[in-house]
Amino acid sequence: MGSQLSNTVVEGEDNTKTIGSTAPDQLLEIESLEKILNYKFKDKRLLVQAFTDASYVDDKCDSYEILELLGDSILNMSIIDEFIKLYPKESPGPLTKLRAVNVDTEKLARVAVKHQLYRYLRHKKPLLEEQILEFVEAMEKYPLHSNGLLKVPKVLADIVESTIGALFRDCNSTETVWEDKFVGCGQHPVKKETARNFAAKNAIDNFSKFFGDL
Amino acid sequence: MGSQLSNTVVEGEDNTKTIGSTAPDQLLEIESLEKILNYKFKDKRLLVQAFTDASYVDDKCDSYEILELLGDSILNMSIIDEFIKLYPKESPGPLTKLRAVNVDTEKLARVAVKHQLYRYLRHKKPLLEEQILEFVEAMEKYPLHSNGLLKVPKVLADIVESTIGALFRDCNSTETVWEDKFVGCGQHPVKKETARNFAAKNAIDNFSKFFGDL
């Protein structure tokens, strides 16, 4: 952790931006991430930025914060769009609650762990690595949402959102981000009747399977 | 107001949905709205729904609430996307504030008045028409944002968001909604230096020209 991605960007012969092409191992890390995301970035720098914490920033690469902000708004939009299609007769109140429980920090952090995204984070925070590993281990004890019992490193949720932001910036399509790539893949087992119950905050732990097929 | 749009939906010879085709005047109203929006709806029912208040709902047409929820999230996403492109080095805090002052109720309500959208609202609320007209007249006294002095009928902001939601649902493209149609048309006169000041809440009244060229 903390150094898996190079921030060296060089121009390839075909004018595409590639990162770490001078270091085969680092290029492999980019490819490995792209495989997880099932998406090949035109601009690899976006992918590197999405995994760069502010503590790691230098003059070659900005931190993920802006991409996280963008990804957060895309995620909110895509989820509400999806829920409206699933439950066209539902009123805004329950739909908004349903969205809230589906984009909370722990749920997104679990996505980062499940897909091993946390391994690619670049940071220089002495305690962060240990905190992340504690959360990863604790997830085994709490396979569903812990409902606030676990201490969740926010950075894990952040990199899920920044990755969504980077995907959108690279392909310029919310449809691609939602339908084909990272978010919303797989079947959603939710039914309207149960969704109404799940929208209640105290049922949050029952709903963690929303991202189950990611 | 309150009855300009018919909710009669009939199948045309080419199987497209048309509304009010039995009443030429009402068809003209749909066309007039489409002209304002510079967009021709494939499904006219979405446009009617976007202008239907809950007080007017019958079994033929739902209210605009769901489209408003969708439009709100699209507007938030599109604005943050635009600001990040304009100010790629700005940090999330100021960008979030900048977004907040650009999608507040009064600003959106002014958009509804400026483009005459309020004339197409369908409702059965006895006092609403008078409240809207009061706001329309007051806008002449306060050509810029009143900074909380004016009483703004929320429904005016709602129909701007529901229209954005209807546009998105009809064309399934945020790019179309943002780039070509309703939001973000024209030049934005904002400069980075001034934007920083405008992000401060007390400067909100100086910033109302963001939607000026809509």
The CATH superfamily title of chain A:
Ribonuclease III domain
What name does CATH use for the topology of chain A?
Answer: Ribonuclease iii, N-terminal Endonuclease Domain, Chain A
Main sheet of chain A? Answer: 2 strands, antiparallel
Helix percent of chain A reads: 40-55%
Computed Rg of chain A: 18 Å
- Write down the CATH class of chain A: Mainly Alpha
Largest inter-chain interface?
A-B, 25 and 25 residues
Q: What's the CATH architecture of chain A?
A: Orthogonal Bundle
Oligomeric state of shown chains:
homodimer
The 3D shape of chain A can be described as globular
How many domains of chain A? 1
Neighbour order of strands in the largest sheet of chain A: 1-2
Organism (chains A, B): Arabidopsis lyrata subsp. lyrata
GO molecular function (chains A, B): metal ion binding; ribonuclease III activity; RNA binding
Pfam families (chains A, B): Ribonuclease_3
Protein name (chains A, B): Ribonuclease III family protein
Detailed description of the structure:
By secondary structure, chain A is an all-alpha fold. Chain A has one domain (9-211): Ribonuclease iii, N-terminal Endonuclease Domain, Chain A (Orthogonal Bundle), CATH 1.10.1520. Helices cover 52% and strands 3% of the residues of chain A. Chain A contains nine helices and two strands. Chain A has helices at 24-37, 44-50, 65-86, 92-102, 105-114, 128-141, 154-171, 174-181, 192-198; strands spanning 9-11, 17-19. Chain A has a two-stranded antiparallel ribbon with strand order 1-2. In chain A, β1 (9-11) and β2 (17-19) form a beta hairpin. In chain A, α3 crosses α7 (154-171). Chain A is globular, with a radius of gyration of 18 Å. Chain A starts with 8 loop residues before the first strand and ends in a 16-residue tail after the last helix. The model of chain A is unreliable at 7-23 and 178-214 (pLDDT under 50). Chain A binds chain B through residues 62, 65-66, 68-70, 73-74, 76-77, 80-81, 84, 88-92, 95-96, 168, 172-175, and chain B through 62, 65-66, 68-70, 73-74, 76-77, 80-81, 84, 88-92, 95-96, 168, 172-175.
